[in-house]
């Protein structure tokens, strides 16, 4: 069966051990985690996780059931199942000489990124967008040397009135 | 003049002031716990001190923490109440890991309380510190590390709820020592209810879906019912019986499900799977509608999954949504407590019963009766050497099928499952999922404590029994007159069987050299030991052993070294490719 990329959103009890329970489920059952993001929500007792994994259809339905079964998981949804928006943030530190500065500035403008730190020898750039855009931007660096790269991993939210926080 | 007091409005609520340790004991009392299986140590001494003052809960001092977990497990499997374990930090809890994994695999409700080093030392590699919640996370249904005195009661309430509802399982509570300090007391009140928003164990199916299932079931020409441990854990045997009788369909049980349907009933085809009966496995392979209830399509049951029930529509009833289509994709699923779903099904199915094709069903039964004629469980009897199968058959006759039987893991376990016919649930207690050698004896202790008046037999092998033999001391201390039946073939028989079949008889490390004299060993623990080595002695001596109601009798039965368990489905083979004897080939069958 063909593997597809799935972006999964979870609300989990902000409790001791929740994160390792979820990470443990992935490693114990042989699922990969491509990227994972965890942060607080408006409700301080709950954290939101977004993770991306590659799975075939059979495996993903089993994974969703296993996630649902964890006592700490309040709600879980495979965003890939419906229309949703994805964003990722990139922080990129570039080594650049005088000659490269214009080129970097130009690319930054094209991608609507922002330069957020400058030194004699470096530029640091911030970019937000869908994962493809992030990748395209990184690819466009060409010969410019990337000193450091930080990606948030994908974040996702469903379109329209739906909310994962509507807990029945 | 006498003073008058007028109480206005409601009396202020009165709280008990208790220490953390006392709170733990109170929580256990509120949950109706009658036994704790445990072993003391530094991190739980405050709790033991509080336990000292109570006579409501009896503490059973085991001789190894693994024994505590298996004993609590056996207790829970026999009587349905959660088994409770109390151990210290570090080695105390690491010794419990096998027992937790055993209970987790077989969905047994248990509460394990482990001491932890005081909060200020957690994470500092303190003496006897181990990351208990980290180590046990994959082998528990859930676990807690308590971080305040105030939360103890709530955590206990949650733990009992999680352990006993939905698909049951073991729950660990790790509690730092400072929280059990006898000198710090707080208000205690045990919550009546607890709401865990993220925990939804109960789902109910719509009537429409139940009817859909009823219709599909009654459309079968060659039906088969396959049930597992979920019938026993879910206390659904009565509902199952009603359904099976209404339908007049054949039924098989998994290793975990034995006793869920009476083994002596004519609709019962015996156990299925790797060492299941010919008729059960053939009926699985040929059926056109399979009704699976409280079973999880374990690989020891399915054989090669690509050849599993090739022409059947499959309906699966289970309490755990993640069991559905996990191994075998099913056509229809009903999720919920097995007893509730079966009750609903029993109601809804009546109008559909008339659609059952009686002629096809009759033909199907005729086919099954033909398969039965193979008498797949027959074996060569001997006058000189004791056949292990005959030991179980004799036990069955002597106890009239009424005993609770625990087992270890190996050939003896399979023979016990095949030849002791369980008519009632909760009587057959074995580690089916994890296959833990060492389970049998401590599990039997738990069963005996739950049912002191019943016969409790541990069927074991000379290799398995040595893994928790130290519990013979516990049996003496608490006067637990279990009967240990050691099928002594001087081999790790099951390993030897595989080596014979798959490694051309190269018996690497499976011969049990340097065995102890089991009768003397039993004697030295203060019990009675007898050895049986002649077939003619088997019945009288077993009878004699069973008659000693108030003593633990260790019966060392010297059995045929070379006997193998049949039928057998070898790996990669299908249900209709069984080997019935050393010489039989699949082609010879059906
Ligand atoms: C703790 C543990 N270690 C290893 C095994 C693998 N194993 C399965 S059966 C078996 C042999 C059991 O021998 P014995 O208790 O004598 O039973 P028999 O098969 O001879 O009846 C072994 C080693 C196991 N199931 N559990
Ligand atoms: Mg043996």
Report on this structure.
The complex is a heterodimer of chains A (168) and B (590). With 168 residues, chain A is α+β, with helices and mostly antiparallel strands. Chain A folds into two domains: 4-82, Alpha-Beta Plaits (2-Layer Sandwich), CATH 3.30.70.260; 85-155, Alpha-Beta Plaits, CATH 3.30.70.1150. Chain A is 27% helix and 40% strand. Chain A is built from four helices and nine strands, in the order βαββαββαββαββ. In chain A, the strands form two sheets. In chain A, strands 5, 6, 7, 8 and 9 form a five-stranded antiparallel β-sheet that branches. Chain B is α/β, with parallel strands linked by helices and 590 residues long. Chain B folds into three domains: 16-188, Rossmann fold (3-Layer(aba) Sandwich); 207-372, TPP-binding domain (Rossmann fold, 3-Layer(aba) Sandwich); 388-558, Rossmann fold, CATH 3.40.50. Helices cover 34% and strands 16% of the residues of chain B. Chain B contains 21 helices and 20 strands. Chain B has a six-stranded parallel β-sheet, with helices on both faces. Chain B is globular. Chain B starts with 15 loop residues before the first strand and ends in a 32-residue tail after the last strand. The relative contact order of chain B is 0.11. Residues 1-7 and 585-590 of chain B have low confidence and may be disordered. At the A-B interface, helix 1, helix 2 and strand 4 of A face strand 6 of B. The complex binds thiamine diphosphate (TPP) and magnesium ion. The site of thiamine diphosphate has 19 residues of chain B, from helix 16 and helix 19.
């Amino acid at each position: 069966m063909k593997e597809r990329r799935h972006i999964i959103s979870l609300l989990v009890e902000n409790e001791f051990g929740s994160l390792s329970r979820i990470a443990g489920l992935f490693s114990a059952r042989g699922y990969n985690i491509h990227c994972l993001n965890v942060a607080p929500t408006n409700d301080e007792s709950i954290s939101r996780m977004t993770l991306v994994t590659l799975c075939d259809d059979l495996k993903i339905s089993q994974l969703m059931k296993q996630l649902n079964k964890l006592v700490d998981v309040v709600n879980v949804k495979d965003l890939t199942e419906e229309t949703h928006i994805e964003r990722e943030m990139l922080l990129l530190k570039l080594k650049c000489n005088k000659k490269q500065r214009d080129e970097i500035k130009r690319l930054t403008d094209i991608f609507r990124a922002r330069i957020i730190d400058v030194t004699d020898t470096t530029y640091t750039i911030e970019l937000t967008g869908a994962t493809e855009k992030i990748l395209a931007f990184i690819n466009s660096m060409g010969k410019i040397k990337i000193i450091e790269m930080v990606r948030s991993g994908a974040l996702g939210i469903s379109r329209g009135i739906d909310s994962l926080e509507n807990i029945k | 003049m006498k003073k008058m007091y007028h109480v206005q409005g409601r009396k202020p609520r009165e709280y008990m002031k208790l220490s953390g340790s006392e709170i733990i004991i109170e929580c256990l009392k509120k949950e109706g716990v009658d036994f704790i299986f445990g072993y003391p140590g530094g991190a739980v001494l405050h709790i033991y001190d509080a336990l000292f003052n109570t006579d409501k809960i009896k503490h059973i001092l085991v001789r190894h923490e693994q024994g505590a977990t298996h004993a609590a497990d056996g207790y829970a499997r026999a009587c349905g109440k959660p088994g409770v374990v109390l151990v210290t930090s570090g080695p105390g809890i690491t010794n419990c890991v096998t027992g937790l994994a055993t209970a987790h695999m077989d969905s047994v409700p248990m509460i394990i309380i482990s001491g932890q080093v005081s909060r200020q030392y957690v994470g500092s590699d303190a003496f006897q510190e181990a990351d208990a919640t980290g180590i046990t996370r994959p082998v528990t249904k859930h676990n807690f590390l308590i971080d305040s005195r105030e939360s103890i009661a709530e955590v206990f309430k949650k733990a009992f709820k999680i352990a006993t509802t939905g698909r049951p399982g073991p729950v660990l509570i790790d509690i730092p020592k400072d929280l059990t300090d006898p000198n710090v007391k707080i208000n205690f009140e045990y919550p009546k209810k607890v709401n865990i928003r993220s925990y939804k164990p109960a789902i109910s199916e719509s009537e429409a879906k139940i009817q859909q299932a009823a219709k599909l079931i009654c459309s079968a020409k060659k039906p088969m019912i396959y049930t597992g441990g979920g019938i026993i854990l879910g206390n659904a045997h009565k509902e199952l019986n009603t359904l099976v009788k209404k339908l007049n369909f054949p039924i098989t049980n998994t290793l975990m499900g034995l006793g869920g349907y009476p083994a002596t009933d004519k609709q019962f085809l015996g156990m299925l799977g790797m060492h299941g009966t010919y008729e059960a496995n053939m009926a699985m392979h040929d059926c056109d509608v399979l009704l699976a209830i409280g079973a999880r399509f374990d690989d020891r049951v399915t054989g090669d999954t690509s050849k599993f029930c090739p022409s059947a529509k499959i309906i699966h009833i289970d309490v755990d949504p993640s069991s559905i289509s996990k191994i075998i994709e099913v056509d229809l699923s009903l999720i919920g407590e097995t007893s509730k779903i079966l009750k609903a099904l029993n109601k809804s199915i009546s109008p559909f019963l008339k659609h059952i094709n009686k002629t096809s069903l009759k033909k199907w039964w005729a086919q099954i009766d033909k398969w039965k004629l193979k008498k797949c469980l027959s074996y060569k009897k001997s006058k000189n050497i004791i056949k292990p199968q005959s030991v179980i058959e004799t036990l069955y006759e002597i106890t009239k099928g009424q005993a609770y039987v625990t087992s270890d893991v190996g050939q003896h376990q399979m023979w016990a499952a095949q030849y002791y016919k369980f008519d009632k649930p909760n009587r057959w207690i074995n580690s089916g999922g994890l296959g833990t050698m060492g389970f049998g004896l401590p599990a039997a202790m738990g069963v005996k404590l739950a049912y002191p008046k019943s016969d409790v037999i541990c069927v074991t092998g000379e290799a398995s029994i040595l893994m928790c033999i130290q519990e013979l001391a516990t049996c003496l201390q608490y006067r637990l007159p279990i009967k240990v039946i050691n099928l002594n073939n001087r081999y790790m028989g099951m390993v030897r069987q595989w080596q014979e079949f798959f490694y051309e008889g190269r018996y690497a490390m499976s011969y049990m050299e340097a065995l102890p004299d089991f009768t003397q060993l039993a004697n030295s623990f203060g019990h009675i030991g007898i050895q049986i080595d002649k077939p003619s002695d088997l019945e009288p001596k077993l009878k004699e052993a069973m008659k000693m109601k108030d003593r633990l009798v260790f019966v060392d039965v010297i059995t045929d070294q070379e006997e193998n368990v049949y039928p057998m489905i070898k790996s990669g083979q299908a249900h209709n490719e069984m080997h019935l004897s050393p010489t039989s080939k699949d082609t010879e069958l059906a």
